[in-house]
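Order emerges. One example.
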Amino acid sequence: MLKQMFWILLLVPMLASAQDTRPLSVDVLWEMDRVGSPVVSPAGGDVVVPVTSYDTETDESETRLWLLSTEGEVQRPLTQSGASAGNPVFAPDGKTLAFTARRDEDEAAQIYLLPMDGPGEATRLSEVPTGVSALKWVGEHIYFISRVWPDKTWQEMAEQRKADEESKVSAHQWNALPYSQWDHWIEEDRQAHVFRIPAAGGDVEAITQPLGRELPRSSQGTGSYDIHPDETHIAFTSNSSEQSVHPEIDLFLARIGQGDARNLTPDNPAGDGNPMFSPDGQMLAWGSQAIPGFYADTVNIMVLDLDSDERRNVTADWDRSPGGLVWAADSTGFFGTAADNGTTRVFHIALEEGRVRAITDQTDFGGLSIAEDGTLVGSNQSFLYPPRVVRINADNGAALRLDTFNDEVLANVDLGTYESVTYTGHNGADIQMWVHYPPGFDPDGEYPLFLLIHGGPHSPITDGFHFRWNAQTFASWGYVTAWHNFHGSPGWGQDFADYINPDWITAPYNDTVAAAEWFADKDWIDDERMVAGGGSYGGYLASILLGKEHPFNALLIHAPVYNMYSQMAADFAVHSARFGDFWDEPQIYRDISPHYFAEDFDTPALIIHGQNDLRVPVGQAFELFRTLQSKGIESRLIYYPDENHWILKPNNSVYWYNEVQRWMEQFAEPGPR
């Protein structure tokens, strides 16, 4: 009955005997290095990747830059221990590496330069009191973003920063949105702008500030701007709307050092972003959406011919949303990734007729970087191993691994197997689901089910490694564990993703119950030992389950949206830009807010939330817990005063996993392990 996935098992080092193995526990997860997105040198020989390691004794982390080769022959650290580094970018000639770091003498992150052709220590290039991020090295300059006080000199900014740090006043003040983003407050009197500094050293020059347009306040990164290869133009994103409640992010083009910024997308009321000049300098590409206020709308690749001013939608006929795009070295198309039927695959998109070709098939890929000779590198991961650095054959998708990070940790870990299945969900639709089996799974045995509900709701579960919600870790406890990609999940077309709007309940709820029914028909599942849970939207749907018929003995509810009305306090208030606010469309909110189902709540629930969560404010958990307690329903609240939407600190994470395990075992006895 169980379909063995032998190709997956081949990916796991089998270096230890069975008696020496250990499960994939939360402690093992924190032994692992976190490998970031690689950057390949212009000539295609070197690769630099940030790697973060954690110390569970101190709860501290450190990120160092490592050098690899595209032949897989080199692996050594580039940056010193004791000071985290990030944002690596190569000089156009590949002889120098720029990166950001905040070392002992730095008040904020600065640009450092490191020679690549011999021994030597990194030297600081910049001294920007407001810090630097999102580096791009083009021509003779290094470009960066900094959040500045627009009417102050650098010296005045340094004084302002020091005064703020020494002030006894902790108040924040706003006169307009946005005021928060995920886990931090947005300072209204500061703006994000692009600057540049000569790579040889010199004065910092403002690029976007003279244009009178700031980058979006809630999103500044390398995807916010790009520089023409000959440094004549900048393309960048900015809010063109006069009101801030529902910003309209448009794409602007300006000649560096002169003229005004031209709005390239004034007729599109939805979002535009991620500008990219082609390597030959003849075209500008960007991602464009059509539905205002809907982050999961299909992203189309628009291309503007800079000479003729003609533009076209390259991917108009492709029902997927490409991300992580890079131009092909010859400027004839793009490489990018997209969620597709449960995996994140690499695709090639040709400019000619918009032909799309899938390059990879199984497991997840991301973090693409391309050299001038077409060498393509990226990261690869699966449910069974964390991200690795690989060189990708652009013709057949073959991936050559370039690193050995985490091999020693995984060498004696006893992993289970997993497979992709399809079952019938809401309205007869096919629903894809990932099923994870405990190590040593016996199809003649009997196991409990732990059904996981993903967040978003438009965030699919693909074949990648999850440190915070690791299905293999849950399976190691003795549970068959599953992630189902219910209606609303991207990767099956826009109609499937948008099916749940504005009704967030009906289809995902039916898909969830149908998933449990699929398992109940299996001889190796005990349908009296089923539990379920999720976070964010997954916590929302778990809160809905509290008041509806379902087969689960208990629920895990992490960072839930429980009250659609008080969610107005969040940095993301449902889809009000698309469906209206509760005072205009009261019935929509009445129909989908979990707190209206409280009369029928009757399931034990473990509720977890962090104080610094500004995406789903912590009051949501307090409301739900008080409701359950008032109704006499067995419930437990775990509150983290120092965590946000996610539990990120090592010891807090260990506690999270242990408490979840304790809760699940209370209501569903684990199977053999």
